Amino acid sequence: MPQLNPAPWLLIMLTSWLTFTLIIQPKLLPFTPINTPSNKPSATANPSPWNWPWS
């Protein structure tokens, strides 16, 4: 069964994870998000019943 042979994909997976954790992730972490969350309370909507013309 060729799926059980780790030789073709194990090195590629380890290389990609090391690239992500050592190079890409430190470059992405200093960025601040554009839309910071606010502490405004969410307004609850009070729906009014719909008056159907056939009822």
UniProtKB/TrEMBL annotation:
Keywords: ATP synthesis, CF(0), Hydrogen ion transport, Ion transport, Membrane, Mitochondrion, Transmembrane, Transmembrane helix, Transport. The chain crosses the membrane at residues 6-24. The gene is ATP8. GO terms for biological process: proton motive force-driven ATP synthesis. Belongs to the ATPase protein 8 family. The keyword Transmembrane applies. Pfam families: ATP-synt_8. One of its GO terms (cellular component) is proton-transporting ATP synthase complex. It is found in: Mitochondrion membrane. It is a single-pass membrane protein. The keyword Nucleotide-binding does not apply. It comes from Spizaetus tyrannus. One of its GO terms (molecular function) is proton transmembrane transporter activity. This is ATP synthase complex subunit 8.
